Every structure is written in structure tokens, then in C-alpha cells.
Amino acid sequence: MSGVRRLGARWRRRRPLRTRLAVAASAAVALVAVGVCAAAFFVIRYELLHQLDLSLTQSATRVIQENRGEGPQIVAGECRYLSAPACAQIVPADPAADPDAAYLLPVSTPVREVAAGTRAPYYSNVTRFGQSLRMLTTPLGDGRALQVALRADPVEKGVRQAAVLLAAVGGAGVLLAGLLGYAVSRTGLAPVARLTSTAERIAATRDPRHRIELPPGPPGRQDEVTRLAASFNTMLGELEQSVSSQRRLVADASHELRTPLTALRTNAELLARGDRLTPAQRERASGALGRGIREVTGLVNDLIELARDEEPLPLLEDVRIAEVVEHAVAVARTHWPQTPFPLEVGAGATEAVRPGVPARLARLLTNLLDNAAKFSPPGTPVEVGLTAHEDGLELTVRDHGPGIPAEDLPYVFDRFYRAEAARALPGSGLGLAMARQIARAHGAELIAGAAPGGGALFTLTFGAQGPPGGSHSP
């Protein structure tokens, strides 16, 4: 038995899902069809025999009424013909009382027992005149038994015909079950086949732009396989967007690195011919080389952090936001001595605590303050405010520069995006993208807008609760 089970398991492993589903569906329908045909056969057979037994009972009742006081004898003997009445004979319990003429129907010990009253009436099948007969043996009283017989071959022929007909119907049902099982498996697994084909095409071409065609209809009425295909299309869309972002990142990084690398090579070549340069020229080339190295180093570090697409996952700690803001403002004042940084912390925000990584939050604020100072005319302030409200904490950084044009607002947080007015200023276009990434990792939202009266306004909002544990933790 275990060998058969192992053989079945090996067959299932080697056959595709469509074949297994077709076989399972066909077997289920075929089993039902065969079961119905078998049940119908037994019902028809029972009913035909029951009708024959009823005819025997009626014939026996008539013979009893007509021959109640008669002795042992052959009452009727024409049952060899289909249209003739039933054969009937009266048999005594004592064989000595048998008539001189031989009985037409077989007389056995059970017949004598019925005549003696020690056995109940019964039906039996006998053969006489070269024909099959159905016989009823029933007591007649006074030590006698009545035997009544009718030809059974019409019933047997009807049973055989019913068996042949039902076998043909069952065979057709099995064949139809196979066709229906194949159709069901082909139709039901069509989305899975398309999904598999799409996945294989993507694996071969490495192009996630392919999609699975979905049947029309509202999403709420789609079946499970269609919903799986829709989810796969959604996953492909996310994959396509991720691949596009990676390609765009590589292209933008290559473009941004080309200029500083060219400058580094030029300065390095100049320094290689240092004997031909004056001391002032060597100093200028050396300083330019150092600045270029620092610029490329910073750009590469920013690219490494942004390429993760998620913040690293050290242990979180409770951070007092006001202290981080004060530290970032103090650092900005040293970097931008000609720009005032007035700071206003609301009464409810002084002791506000949020889970996070202090170094990453400080990097976020430093990027915002550097960006604001870079676009502010010398001597104009960059206003920083931290307030608490029912929904959480709100940090604002406002400058008095030219502001952000409306057409540039949707793109200010994109990697390497630089407005036309900012392309002449130092920077790589990664600071705001990194700031938003850090904000989202801390469960905060960073938005940019136009400040009343001119300038740009960046708003960082922390929710009432910190980011859930383990999800996008910084």
C-alpha cells in the first residue's frame, strides 16, 4: 500500500498543475456519473423484480380463491408461454399424498415445510421448459402449499438492457467528465498560465514593463486567481518603478560625478607638472584638488546612503527633539556666519520626546538649514520654529530668498533635482532627498511650500506617536 502511495506522490510531482487539476476534476465527475448509473441500475432491477413478485402474489391470490378446497394437483401449466397465465400447483406436506401425475414445478424440502406451516412464504428462481421462471411458494392451509410461477426472462432481458444502457451512459459520462475537467483546468488556470508566461518573459528579458491581461469586471467580483494576477501586476509596477529609480540614480550620479572628476584630473595633472608652476599656482591647484576630493567624497557618501532606499536599523532611543534642533542651529551658525538663525521653541515642545537616531535627525535638520542659508541673501535670517500641538510636533524652517517656483515644487525632493536658479550654486541636489528619506524613516512628513511674503518654507511634522517598532526604523 505504501508503494502505491509513493507511486502516486511521484506521479503528482512529475505532472503539471493543469494535468493534475484536470485528472482530479474528471475523476470526481466520473465517480459521480458511475455512482448514479450504478444506483439507477439497482433501482431498475429492484423495481422490475418487484413488479414480477406482485404479479405472482396476485396470481396466487386468485388461485387460492378458486381452489380453496382442492387437493394436491396441477392447477395450471401453461406458463411456458409469455401470454399464458401463471403455472400453479398444490403440494401436500406429506409426500404420500402427492397425485399420480408428476408436478410441473420442482418440489423440494422447503416447499413441504411451507405446506406444514414451519416455513414462511418465499420467492425463488427456477428453470423449466428451457426458460427461467420466478416462483412463489405460499401456504394454502390444511397441510398444503401453493406454488405459482411466471416466466422471468422478460424481466431478466429488461435488466440486461438497462445495464447496457446505463453502462453506455456511464461511459459517455466519464468521457464528458474528462472533457469538462480539461476545460475547467484550462479555463481556471488561464490567468496562472499568463502569470507564469509573464514571469518567464521578465526573467528572460529583465524588462518589468510586461503586464498580465485581466478580464473585464469590477474588482469586487474578481475570483482569487484574477486577484492574484492583479497583485502580480501591482508588484510588477513597483518593480518597474524601482528599476527606473535605480537607472535614474546611476545616470544622475554619473552625470554629477563627471564634472568633479574632470576637475580632479585636471588639478592632478597640473600638480604632476609642479616644477613648471609658481608657488601660488601650486597652492591654488592643491586647494582645488582638496576641495574636489571633499566634494566627490561627500557626493559618494550621500549616494551610498540614498542607494539603500531605507535608513539603517540601529537601536532606537528616545530623542528630545528640541535639543537636536538647538544643536543643528548652533552648527549652522558656525557654517554660515553671515546668516542669522533665530530659533523659537514653543512651551509644549521643550520636553517633547520621539523615538529615533539623534545623528540622523541632526543630519536632516542640517540639510534643511544649509539649503535655506544657501538661498538666503547675506544678512537675512533663516527662521526656525518648533511648536507642539494636539497632533504632534511641527518644525518649520523659513528663508527669505527667491522661494521655490510653483513648477519646481513637486520635484524639490527628487534625487539630483536642481532648479534652474540653483544650478550655479554649490551642491549635488541630494540634500533634500536625503532629508525626506530620514523624515519618513522616523514616521515624520516633510513638505515644501512658499512662505508668506516670499521665500521658501519647509515643514517637518512628527506624529503624536513615534514610528511603529520595526517598520522603517531609522
Major β-sheet, in short?
5 strands, antiparallel
Could you spell the SSE succession in H and E letters?
A: HHEEHEEEHHHHEHEEHEEHEE
Number of helices: 10
Proportion of β residues? Answer: 15-25%
Catalytic activity: ATP + protein L-histidine = ADP + protein N-phospho-L-histidine
Transmembrane segments: 21-44, 162-184
Enzyme class: transferase
Protein name: histidine kinase
Topology (SSEs and partners):
Layout: H1 2-14, H2 17-66, E1 73-76, E2 87-92, H3 109-116, E3 122-128, E4 131-139, E5 144-151, H4 153-188, H5 190-205, H6 224-272, H7 279-307, E6 317-320, H8 321-335, E7 343-345, E8 353-356, H9 358-374, E9 383-389, E10 392-398, H10 431-441, E11 444-450, E12 456-463
Parallel strand pairs: 7-9
Antiparallel strand pairs: 1-2, 2-5, 3-4, 4-5, 6-8, 9-10, 10-12, 11-12
Helix pairs in contact: 2-4, 6-7, 8-9, 9-10
